[in-house]
Design the sequence.
């Protein structure tokens, strides 16, 4: 299917989805937003209070910081695709449960397929867990990993920096490396495909030496 149509289709399905119990507490589902040809896709945790009210991702304080961080690398939020690991707000902003993440995963997978971003940036531990279940954010944040043919960079959630100011410079530094990583992403994927005729095992995570 045409990628634009597929993204719209996902949003329509999410709006009326009842695949997990989070549909009970949502006001508006938050499918995500951004251009279909975005080169960067950000995956956060789940809608909070404001997102649930407005049906848009990252519109609260964490979103403001995300926009500021994008600004430091000369980008605007309208240039990137922003979504979450679960599309409906967990009650009281509790953590999403494994069954909820699992139930919602096919929507995220379809969005990744449709957008085919050069880099996926996970924000926080739940979206990191989708790609690197056993990774420690304090160890691997900011590093480019090649997982199932995709470049994934795990970063701290912007809300974490708002609660713990010492993390702000860590996130800023990880963002500062994004442009370099983007410009090298195609090259790195090409090279690894040339030198590696067998696809990597499904759960393999290879760290790339980009810097
Ligand atoms: N935090 C998230 O993880 N996602 C949002 O959409 C907003 C805040
Ligand atoms: Fe459906 Fe995802 Fe919302 Fe659960 S969180 S009801 S799976 S859209």
Sequence:
């Amino acid at each position: 299917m045409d990628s634009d149509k597929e993204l719209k289709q996902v949003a329509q399905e999410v709006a009326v989805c009842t695949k997990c119990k989070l549909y009970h507490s949502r006001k508006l589902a938050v499918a995500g937003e951004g251009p279909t040809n975005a080169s960067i896709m950000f995956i956060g945790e789940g809608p909070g209070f404001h997102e649930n009210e407005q049906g848009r991702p990252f519109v609260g304080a964490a979103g403001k910081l995300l926009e500021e961080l994008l600004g430091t690398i000369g980008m605007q939020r309208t240039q990137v695709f922003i979504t979450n690991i679960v599309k409906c707000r967990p009650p009281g902003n509790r953590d999403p449960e494994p069954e909820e993440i699992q139930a919602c995963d096919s929507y995220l997978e379809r969005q990744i397929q449709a957008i085919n971003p050069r880099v996926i940036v996970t924000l926080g531990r739940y979206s990191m867990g989708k790609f690197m279940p056993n990774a420690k954010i304090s160890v691997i944040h900011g590093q480019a990993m090649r997982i199932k043919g995709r470049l994934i960079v795990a970063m701290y959630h912007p809300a974490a920096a708002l609660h713990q100011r010492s993390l702000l410079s860590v996130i800023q530094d990880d963002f500062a490396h994004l442009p370099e990583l983007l410009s090298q992403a195609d090259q790195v994927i090409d090279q690894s495909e040339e030198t590696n005729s067998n696809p990597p095992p499904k759960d393999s995570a290879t760290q790339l030496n980009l810097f």
Notes: DSSP finds nine helices and six strands in the chain. Residues 194-204 have pLDDT under 50 and may be disordered.
